[in-house]
TrEMBL record:
<protein>
    <submittedName>
        <fullName>Uncharacterized protein</fullName>
    </submittedName>
</protein>
<feature type="compositionally biased region" description="Basic and acidic residues">
    <location>
        <begin position="25"/>
        <end position="34"/>
    </location>
</feature>
<feature type="transmembrane region" description="Helical">
    <location>
        <begin position="40"/>
        <end position="57"/>
    </location>
</feature>
<feature type="compositionally biased region" description="Acidic residues">
    <location>
        <begin position="1"/>
        <end position="24"/>
    </location>
</feature>
<keyword id="KW-1133">Transmembrane helix</keyword>
<feature type="region of interest" description="Disordered">
    <location>
        <begin position="1"/>
        <end position="36"/>
    </location>
</feature>
<keyword id="KW-0472">Membrane</keyword>
<keyword id="KW-0812">Transmembrane</keyword>
């Protein structure tokens, strides 16, 4: 039998149950109203709009969709490569001889002069700090004049000589290819024949070097380096004449000194002195200009001679008789300036210094 409960206790328990139920009812959240089922049409429409937005992005980027207000295209800052490519493209299709004369008359602006001088220096072809020539001279100037260079220095000199000689000839090839607008076959032949000529020069250099010590006096104008690295000497060899390096058309020959050289050489050969035939490259010492008051060398005499050594000045080309080297450079055809630097490397540094002083 269960124990009897006190009535007061039963009453209290009922009150607690009532109070607890009321309390729960007070804090119970109301039930949410039943949701309406979504309309599938809106879902389909949203998917269609998303696909349409994705499709419009590339169309707008490519400019296929017109808008009420068109924005001007963003301008691209000109770069060397961009500018040079534009210039090269503009020359295609023009008559070679007419274009050559036009470029001679037009000359170069400060930026174009800087490009060429910086390219020359960038290849290490000048004689300034960090150049290949300056590095070679630093190796030979480390001891007394009578002492031969060390074996290590001698090996480095040989490698530097090969590098400098190869880059000089590559600069010359590039100048010819640009001025003459050589086609792919001509460029291939040019590279092959000039490489063969360089190999012959290298073999002569090696033979001469075996009997000549490297000393403080070793420069590109001295043996054994002169036939390999001194451009006025190696370039004077007939093997490096443009028409000997590859077959040129009549129009291409017309902007070189081919006719002039042929006439001079034939005249000497006709006189029975074939061994005295002049070089194709006329770099003879300049004569003094004599007046009643004094004798002096023509202003820009050597620079003019070197600039026009391969590609002559055109009729109407305004070459200055006074001023600075930069003034002369601005009146040249690009290839004439390239040849002027190759035949006297220090001019690259002089031009860059003048450009800096002028703020150009």
């Amino acid at each position: 039998m269960s124990e009897p409960q006190d009535p007061d206790t039963e009453s209290a328990t009922e009150e607690e149950e009532v109070d607890l139920e009321a309390l729960l009812e007070e804090f119970r959240e109301p039930e949410p109203p039943p949701r309406k089922r979504g309309n599938p049409v809106w879902l389909i429409l949203a998917v269609i709009l998303s696909i349409l937005a994705i499709w419009m992005v590339p169309q707008a980027t490519e400019g296929k969709i017109g808008f009420g207000i068109a924005k001007a295209p963003a301008t691209m800052k000109a770069t060397k490569v961009r500018d040079r490519s534009a210039i090269a493209a503009a020359l295609q299709g023009k008559d070679l001889s007419e274009d050559y004369v036009a470029r001679c008359k037009k000359g170069l602006n400060s930026l174009e002069v800087r490009w060429i001088a910086e390219d020359f220096r960038g290849e290490g072809l000048d004689d300034g700090p960090g150049s290949l020539l300056e590095t070679m001279q630093s190796l030979t100037a480390s001891g007394p004049a009578w002492a031969p260079a060390s074996a290590e220095s001698s090996d480095r000199l040989e490698k530097l000589a090969g590098l400098l000689g190869g880059r000089q000839r590559a600069w010359y090839r590039s100048a010819l290819a640009d001025a003459l607008r050589l086609d792919d076959m001509q460029r291939h032949t040019l590279k092959k024949t000039s490489s063969e000529a360089f190999q012959e020069d290298w073999e002569s250099f090696e033979k001469s070097r075996q009997s000549t010590r490297d000393s403080i006096y070793a420069t590109t104008r001295d043996a054994p380096y002169n036939g390999l690295l001194y451009a006025p000497q190696w370039l004077s060899d007939d093997r490096y004449a443009p028409w000997r390096l590859c077959q040129l058309s009549t129009e291409q020959l017309g902007i070189t000194r081919y006719d002039e050289v042929k006439d001079k050489q034939l005249a000497v050969i006709g006189s029975g002195a074939a061994e005295d035939a002049p070089s194709w490259l006329d770099l003879k010492p300049l004569h003094l200009v004599t007046t009643e008051e004094l004798s002096y060398e023509e202003v820009f005499g050597q620079e003019k001679r070197d600039a026009s050594a391969v590609f002559p000045f055109a009729e109407g080309q305004k070459i200055p008789d006074e001023g600075k080297l930069l003034d002369l450079a601005k009146t040249l055809h690009p290839t004439q300036l390239k040849m002027m630097l190759l035949l006297e490397p220090k001019r690259a540094g002089e031009l860059l210094e003048e450009l800096e002083r002028e703020g150009e």
